[in-house]
Task: structure prediction
Amino acid sequence: MLREKEKVVQNFLAIVDVIIAIVAFNIALYIHFERFDYLHDKDAVILHFVILTAWYVLSKVFRMNEIYRSRPYSVLMLNVFATTILGSALVGLVEFVFELYYIGFEPIITFAGLAFLIAYAQKSFLYAYLKRARKRGLNTRSILIVGDKSARIFINQLLRHGEWGYKIAGIIGTKELEETHGAIAPFLPQDADVDQILANKAIDEVIYIYEKARMEDIMTLLGSCNEVGVVFRMSSPIFNVLSNKTHMHYFSTTPMLTISNTPMDYLALKVKAVFDFIVSLVTVSLLSPVYIGIALIIKLTSKGPVFFKQKRVGIRGRKFWVYKFRTMVVNAEELKEDLMKFNEMDGPTFKMKKDPRITGIGHFLRRTSLDELPQFFNVIMGDMAIVGPRPPVPAEVKDYERWQLRRLSMKPGITCSWQVSSARNDISFDDWMKMDLDYIDNWSLRLDFIIILKTIRTMVRADGR
Result:
């Protein structure tokens, strides 16, 4: 009965979202044309139908029609914003497809602004009203807590946040928990019969919080809750490492909880791969005169090949050949051993100011990062990305500490957050590794775009070495 009531409320709130969008659309028309009946009858039907359908679906997709008890206002705002942007874009697309050019796109922009402001104001007011009502004891949910001493933090949160509207009907727990929170609600021993409690008391949710959760207990409680339609929730220390990088994967009919601390957004990663390929292909084509010019200068100013080829380590230890314009003398690797005493980097990498192995043109190519241009061929071949941790040589990887190996969990890149850092020439090896791991943990298409722009700035400044 409770779930049916929630569905009715959610459908009602989705309809409210639709009404707000339609009202905002008509107000936008009046602002621009000073009349509500400006649209042709057929066009008005099409656009209003699109708004009705889009906002009803998007309201459910972004869960704007659900009433949360502990939802931050920022999340509320982001969901309203996403709905408004996508919905308005769809209306604009329909206007373009049906050639409704007499309307113009200015009313669509006004419509988007009004729809966002009205919807967010309405939801914020409703959210604030419900919080006040719950603090007064209205619209509460009765919960049964099953836990050990690790449940103390959550119970204290419930006591502090009366606006969440949770009333503790009972606690089943250890003696340690009873010592600190036994007076808050009826306290029951660990072997209490949960089935009987659910049958005799009005319990809306069962919350399981154990530091060392036992699968047998979880399955028993889950079964008891499912039988009578009670919500089951659980908390575990493992959730601290799950973050948002988990999903349920099915091998045929076998479900697997998949956990990864690397980017898992399949669509975004595919967009990145396609973007990298296209941009690399265009770059190689447009800059072909630059490639030829640099090759000629290298050939005319020093003996040896134009390109420098070196074995590097890619994603998860896969080895590949990386290509660069040669900036050093041919026997640079042989001379490196004698120069190790001048190494300015800690860790397994080598870097030295005024390295005598670098050729005249090599200094310029390194400062401007133009020596990296051939790596766009590596991107086209699929070994590298435009943005990603720099590919190390195998000898460096052998000296990595275990935590540093995680930087190999993403495809290596031509540029990275370290290369666009203002202190890239003086940063320690450990800080370099941490910057790469931070990039992996916070990866997004937006972050790649920012790094690309900063790379262009770095090339113009020519402060590399």
In short: The chain has a mean pLDDT of 86. The chain is about 50% helix and 15% strand.
